[in-house]
Amino acid sequence: MLSQLDDNTRPATMAGLFELAPAKINLALHVVGRRADGYHLLESIVTFADHGDRLDFAPAERDRFSFSGRFAPALSTGSGKHADNLVLKARDRLRSLLQDQGLAAPPVAIHLEKNLPVAAGIGGGSADAAAALRGLLRLWDVEVSAPELDRLALELGADVPMCLRSEPMLVRGIGEDVTLLPDFPSLALVLANPLVGVSTPQIFRRLERKNNPPIGPKGEGDWVDFLGMLRNDLEPPARSLVPEIAQVSAMLDAEDALLTRMTGSGATCFGLFETMDTARGAASALQRRKPDWYFQAVQTAGHKSGTSS
Ligand SMILES: C[C@](O)(CO)[C@H](O)COP(=O)(O)OP(=O)(O)OC[C@H]1O[C@@H](n2ccc(N)nc2=O)[C@H](O)[C@@H]1O
Ligand SMILES: Nc1ncnc2c1ncn2[C@@H]1O[C@H](COP(=O)(O)OP(=O)(O)OP(=O)(O)O)[C@@H](O)[C@H]1O
């Protein structure tokens, strides 16, 4: 059963078990083909921010779900019913998998602090679903095999298996073929979103060319130089649908970002900066110019000896 807690701030009694749900960033996204079922085959270099949603979990007498945070209103109006929330889908699917194996999955109170914009290309829903799986496995003190967990994650969404790991990676297929990139540098980025929600299927439908060149091998060179040679193939169709993407991208360029690109199906763009100090300075300057838009300086996962150290 679903119910809303009276107070939509995070309940103090839920201290203890929490999971972060970091923003996903597609540093490059090449669409290289199409499957028979219509899903597009991708090659993507993905990393994760030190900023995201937060999920709190506590045992309860019956299942409860509540949310708070800057983007909680977008959730309730966006999806209409809370029952659509990927956190609840993740809870219910994991519970039935465990019960099929004779394991207990007792009622749980979950609170979602929604800090990430919704339908923004930074995988907020997928990150929440992955964090729900991780948190519930800890709360219920149970294990499922890695292939079973990956299968369940992929059923919840193409991005959920990547979000389970939240480390720099090369992703192929639709999200199921993940290769971790242990030598990938930690980067200083500014995430910038004009707060125009973008529907992922709509962007894929607008994409004209489905067979674009693959990412190819990096060779001996630097990761950041390599990224500069890559693309997001979803950026042209997204720009044609949402004119603010060109605007937000130009604003990042004007702050002297080393590289500016859209992530996922948009509308969030990222700008790459030399250091976290310059990224924070750029985010503050941009926020002053557009007080209602979303600007966030983030440090990404990976080796701290990279460009942004
Ligand atoms: C674009 C990315 O954000 C890149 O990381 C993801 O591939 C999208 O992942 P996601 O939001 O979890 O997407 P899903 O919820 O699985 O798919 C939403 C819809 O987008 C389209 N879709 C999605 C992924 C993909 N590789 N090809 C597609 O054509 C399909 O119409 C699908 O029904
Ligand atoms: N916990 C959640 N957070 C955000 N959106 C959710 C959640 N649960 C369900 N949704 C639904 O999922 C849709 C996509 O939201 P999300 O924020 O995950 O998109 P996205 O960042 O564009 O994802 P991606 O980068 O994977 O394409 C929203 O329109 C919303 O209705």
TrEMBL record:
Its EC number is 2.7.1.148. It is an enzyme of class 2 (transferase). GO terms for molecular function: 4-(cytidine 5'-diphospho)-2-C-methyl-D-erythritol kinase activity; ATP binding. It catalyses: 4-CDP-2-C-methyl-D-erythritol + ATP = 4-CDP-2-C-methyl-D-erythritol 2-phosphate + ADP + H(+). Residues 85-165 form the GHMP kinase N-terminal domain. InterPro entries: GHMP_kinase_C_dom (IPR013750), GHMP_kinase_C_sf (IPR036554), GHMP_kinase_N_dom (IPR006204), IspE (IPR004424), Ribosomal_Su5_D2-typ_SF (IPR020568), Ribsml_uS5_D2-typ_fold_subgr (IPR014721). Residues 220-289 form the GHMP kinase C-terminal domain. It comes from the Bacteria. ATP binds at residues 117-127. GO terms for biological process: isopentenyl diphosphate biosynthetic process, methylerythritol 4-phosphate pathway; terpenoid biosynthetic process. Coiled coil: none annotated. Catalyzes the phosphorylation of the position 2 hydroxy group of 4-diphosphocytidyl-2C-methyl-D-erythritol. This is 4-diphosphocytidyl-2-C-methyl-D-erythritol kinase. The gene is ispE.
